[in-house]
Amino acid sequence: MHRRILAIAGAIALTLPAGAAMAAGEEDPSSRFPSSDGAGAIDSDFTPSAIGADGRVTVIVELEGDPVAVVEAEEGRELSTSEREDIADSLEDAQEVVVDAIVDAGGEVSAQMHSAYNGVQAAIPAAELDAVADLPGVVAIHPVRTYSLDNAVSVPSLDIPALWENTGYTGEAIKVGIIDTGIDYTHATFGGPGTVAAFEEAAANSTLPADPALFGPDAPRVKGGIDLVGDAYDASSSDPERRIPVPDDNPLDCQGHGSHVAGTAGGSGVNPDGTTYTGPYDESTAGREFRVGPGVAPQVDLYAIRVFGCTGSTDVTVPPSTGPSPTVWTSSTSRWAPPTDAATIRARSPPPMRWGRASSSSPRRATRVTTPTSRARRARAKA
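Given the sequence above, the corresponding structure tokens read:
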């Protein structure tokens, strides 16, 4: 009964004129808030940021039919090359209806996918999206998101700044060897100038002793190392000369991978103006702006052990024995530095995934993407 009375009273209050409601109280509640002058009529001319200057939206059009990978998974066996090709061709033929409709509507197709996904990527006029969505065989239309590189969020996401704050452990007095493609000691995250000119000068003299202000015991971050192979070295090269290591004492990175690993492990960080960040390393660090964020242990002493050339693979390492670190094959290892407290090698085998049609030697690694050029070639071949 009490609830019913409250409900009736609320309904009556809602039907009262605004003036009557005011009279029941001592003052207008809105008078407690400052008023703001209007700025004119609201502009209704709104354009979503996803629409490009040409009025088109880049989307993925998902289509009916299982892609090659799904068919293979459902079959529970490895499909032959011809079976994969047949599935891909069938999907591509079915996609042509949608592709033609997109082009007729003023859109542009950038890729057709069949291997892991059955769909079409295209830029379509915004006004035509509903019409494309209604085409036979279309399951859904998905926006294509644009991503930007950000090298300052991983360490905070691991709560490393709190670790620095609570323990004081930032890697100081710890030696870390990076067994990789070398380290670009001219980079600002390793205390270098961080300029193109500085790197080009170092690269032009990469077989000579490095600048001691950037590399060596008195350098800010990269305290030593060795190049065990040389720039031209590639263990997989068909040229026998390139398979022969040519060591020197300057492990400047000409590939980039080792510098990335070294920066993740122990880079100082780079300020927005391109200069080296020198601290503090504590919980306040996560709130700062960086061009490149600090590594996990930003005050370690880094050592570059270069086992890769500028391109290709390496075979100058052997499996570890009983210790935790990889063993680097060389007759001159003892020349370059004292033992490190930790060593890291970041490499992979077998070789990276190839793009294109599958071959019998790599049935699971191939991904087929059809571009407008390849689609035209295929059409001519059928004709």
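Residues 113 and 172 are 50 Å apart (CA to CA). Try to locate this feature in the token string yourself.
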